[in-house]
Amino acid sequence: MWLSRFAGMVDLGILVVIGVFIVLPPRAQYTREVMKGDAWRLALAEARTMARPGDGAAVDDLTHELDDAQQKDWAIDFSVLASERAKDSPTRWRALLAASTAFVDRFDVVPGLDYANRALNACSAARERDPSACPNPDQVRMELYQANLAAGVASGFNPRTDRVRFMKAGESALLQIHLDPRDRERGSGAPAAGNGAGSAGSAGSATAP
C-alpha cells in the first residue's frame, strides 16, 4: 500500500510539471550573428584560398577579413597554417606577414616579430629568383614595420598594459634626420636651407603599415 501511494505521488508530481509547461508561455529565444563583418566578403576570401592555397595575397586577404570579424584566434591559426603550406610559393612572404599582423593585433608581439622576420627573409629569397615577386615598395614597408615592432619588443613594455609607451618605443626607431653632406664640409651643424628640411620631413613622415 505504501509503494502504491508513493507511486501515486510521483505520478501527480509529473502531471503538475507537465501542466506548468503547458500553461506557461514559451520562453523567448534570441539569436545573433556569430561573426561580425561582411559574410559575403569573408566567404569569397575563403573560396579564393581554397582555389589557390599557395597564393599569399589570398591568405592575407582572408586573414584580415577574419581579423575584422573579431575572429582573431582563427585568423592566427589560419595564417600560420597557410604560411606553412605555401613554402614553395613566391608570395609566401604575404602569408607570413599576415600571420605577423594577426599576432600583433592580439598584442602577441613576440611571435608577431618572429613572423615579420620570416616574412622579410621570404621576401629576400623570392626577390633572388624574381624581383617582381616581392616589389621593392612592399619590402621597404615591411622593413619599417619590422623595425617599429622590433624596437617596441626590445623596450620591454607590455602592449597589453602599457600600450602608449610600447608605441612610442616603436616609433623611436623610425625617427631619423638626414643632413645634407655639404653641411659637414661647411662645418655647420645646421642643414642647408631647403635640402636638409626636405630630407628630415621625408624621414619623419614614414610610418609602419
What does this molecule look like?
The protein has 209 residues and is mainly alpha-helical. The protein has a domain at 39-154: Serine Threonine Protein Phosphatase 5, Tetratricopeptide repeat (Alpha Horseshoe). The chain has ten helices and no strands. It starts with a helix and ends in a 5-residue tail after the last helix.
Quickly give the structural class. mainly alpha
Tell how many strands the DSSP assignment holds.
0
Secondary-structure element sequence? HHHHHHHHHH
Q: How does the overall form come out from the CA principal axes?
A: elongated
User: Would you state the CATH class of one domain?
Assistant: Mainly Alpha
Terminal residue distance: 83 Å
CATH architecture assignment of one domain = Alpha Horseshoe
Alpha carbon gyration radius: 29 Å
Q: Which band does the percent of strand residues land in?
A: under 5%
List the helices and strands and how they pair.
Elements: H1 2-23, H2 39-51, H3 56-68, H4 72-85, H5 92-105, H6 109-129, H7 136-155, H8 163-172, H9 181-186, H10 195-204
